[in-house]
Amino acid sequence: MNKKHVLGFLCLILSATYYSYAQQPIELTCEQKALTMLEREPYLSSYSKEFIEELLVYIEPCATEGDPASQYIAALLYWESEREQNMHKGFNLLQSASRGYDPALLKLAMTYLRELENYPFHKISYPKASNALRSMISPRNYKTDIANYVLGYLNMKHFPNALTPDYSKAKSYFESSNHPMAKHWLAIMYYFGYGVTQDKAKARQMLAENDIYNSEVLLTYLDTQNSDWLPMSAEELSILNEYGDNFNQTSQSFNGIYDGRFIEFDWSRDLGVKRDVPFTIDFDWNESSRDLTYELSIAEQTFSGQTKLSNGFISFNDSPLSFKLPRLYKDHKDKDSLEYNISQIFLRENILIGESIFIGQLQGSIADLNEPMPHSKMIFKKRTGTTALQNSTIANSELKNKLDQDFAIIHPNPIQDQFKITFNTNQFNNMTVSVYNFFGQKLIEQSKVDHRDNTQKTVTLNSSDLPSGTYIVQIKMDNKTYSKIVTKE
Predict the structure, then answer these.
(1) Where is the signal peptide (predicted)?
(2) Which of 50, 237, 341, 485 to pair with 27, CA 20 to 30 A apart?
(3) 220 has which bridge partners?
(4) Tens of pLDDT along 163-217?
(5) So what's the pLDDT on residue 405?
(6) Is 408-488 assigned to CATH 2.60.40.1930?
(7) Residue/partner pairs of 48-55 with CB below 8 Å, 24 or more apart
(8) Helix residue ranges per DSSP H, 158-212
(9) Is the pLDDT reported for residue 373 higher than 50?
(10) What three-state secondary structure class fits 331?
């Protein structure tokens, strides 16, 4: 702790009186005491617990009398003490202070957007945060740029228990704010077409004129971003959004290896799919210890741990199921990925062509953003001898790189009524090419290869019967399997 700060603060607050020219003692008012302490608000977290207690003794009488500024500073001091009882007192004081002290109203709004350590009874509430932010705009007229920016962000994204996503309101709030991050997100809306007519040129101009680091980085990397929703057929979306029958599996019967897809929707919830990532998960039931363990392979990462399966819920109580995926909107040079923490999967079972398909609604958060993860699902089925993704090596970096380095070129992609796969090699024989949807149904299979020359092989596939959607092209050669994702618009 900085001794200069402490000594200076002590001199200010321990002088409860000062003298006029007539040497008459004059006691500081509650407002003066609060203002004196608020000057040191940025340093509160550096003070010792003992000193925090002394400051509380000094300001508590004013807070009890109902002075809003004193209630605000007392609330902050209670939170620094980190005791659950004091956290509760601090939150009640903050609510009271917010009725007459504008900084307390802003603090209350931001508090509703995050969890509080050592205070498990506090719950995130986006509607309450929104109400407080709207009060800042009218009638308070206090820090309206911040309020409009945060309200725009909340209306644009669809968090659990948040407001219904409303792109028109988000656009209006962003346009009403001069906060640079409001301009940043408004540009993103135009670039990706969220609730507005997509206009990449306008978005680029807005980012170029927005003099902040985030916009500068995003403008540099925009060409590498995924700017379109992944197309999915009506059948695929219907199955994804249909819960199906109750989940009747037990830990013992759920034992086995499953292949599936991690599906992340845009904030429009069930309309736009922004991410479709294959994964494999192995559940292992130990009869003697009565433990259910898992091993998840996704995006070239492998994670393992213990879990519980009960009443259709897979729970990760001891520690969340965590994995990292690339950022969809890269606006930090040194932050290429986001950490997804899944706390629970709500499972339902569906039958597709006689096979059980498990659909899991995910609950969790994105640690790097300190906010709930977007609407996301896992869809998977048990691996069998005919399972589509059996022996899939899409997560194997070495084989994936072979495809990416022109080992095999799929063109065009997005595919049309037909597409070609060209192999720049002649060392493989017995080649089979199959196309699956992400539910594991085999839709196309072709083993005949047309030779162009001695070093190049080309396979032409008829995809005219495929609806718009996302597909896996699987190539088997000499007992090795390669996979690549394609889309059809």
Answers:
(1) 1-22
(2) 50
(3) none
(4) 566 888 999 999 999 999 999 999 998 988 888 888 999 999 999 999 999 999 9
(5) 44
(6) yes
(7) 48/1, 49/80, 49/81, 51/6, 52/77, 52/80, 52/81, 53/81, 55/13
(8) 167-175, 180-192, 200-209
(9) yes
(10) coil
Rounded CA-CA distance 465/471 in Å is 13
Structure-block tokens of residue 107: 């603090």
**Rounded Cα gap, residues 474 and 393, in angstroms:** 9
How would you classify residue 40: left for phi > 0, otherwise alpha for psi between -120 and 50, otherwise beta?
alpha
Amino acid (one-letter) located at 474:
Q
More confident residue, 99 or 404: 99
Whole-number Cα distances in Å, 344 to 239, 313, 322:
21, 7, 11
- CATH 1.25.40.10 positions along the chain are 30-214
Domain 30-214: give its CATH code: 1.25.40.10
- What are the residues whose beta carbons fall under 8 Å from the beta carbon of 256, sequence distance 6 or more? 282, 283, 382, 383
Question: In which element (H, E) is residue 256 found?
Answer: strand 256-265
Sequence-separated (6 or more) residues with CB below 8 Å from residue 252: 285, 287
Q: What's the confidence (pLDDT) of residue 19? A: 44
For residue 162, the one-letter residue type is A
Total Cβ atoms within 10 A of residue 121: 9
Categorize the per-residue pLDDT at 162 as very low, low, confident or very high, splitting at 50, 70 and 90.
low
List Cα–Cα distances, 107 to 90, 91, 104, 152, 389, in angstroms.
12, 10, 5, 18, 50
Determine the angle formed by the axes of helices 102-111 and 68-81, rounding to 10 degrees: 40
Specify the CATH class of 234-382 in words: mainly beta
Can you list the pairs that 216-219 forms with residues at least 24 positions away whose Cβ atoms lie under 8 Å? 217/330, 217/331, 217/332, 217/333, 218/184, 218/187, 218/188, 218/329, 218/330, 218/331
Quick one: tokens of 224?
A: 């590498």
For the chain, where do the domains classified as CATH 2.40.128 start and end?
234-382
The 10s digit of each residue's pLDDT in 321-334 is 999 998 877 888 78
CA 235 to centroid of chain Cα atoms: 26
pTM score of the predicted model: 0.72
**CB-count burial class (<10 Å; 0-12, 13-18, 19+) for 156:** buried
Give the pair of three-digit tokens for residue 132: 């407080």
- How far CA 315 is from CA of 34, 341, 344, 357, 362, in Å, comes to 46, 12, 5, 19, 10
Which residues of the chain does CATH 2.60.40.1930 include? 408-488
Residue that has been written with the tokens 């028109």 in this structure: 168
**Diameter over CA atoms, the chain:** 108
